[in-house]
Amino acid sequence: MDLNKLAKLSKLKEGYEIFKRNHPKIPLYFKQMSKVAIEEDTVVEITITPPGGKPYEANFKLKADEVAFFKDFMNI
Asked: What is the pLDDT of residues 10-19, one digit of tens each?
């Protein structure tokens, strides 16, 4: 892995630590959901609402080959 990628990973880790401090319940929620609700064909829905703006929504269904990655991601 080159130094540029290592620097990006380090920056992502730092950002994640800040996010965990600011929103401590979210990682706990993700960890719990990875144990009880993540399996093939689980639908994940995301809504982003900017201040005073309209909500933007998206969803996706997990495929079998994505489940392990998604569980790992939710347990970071």
From this structure: 999 999 999 9
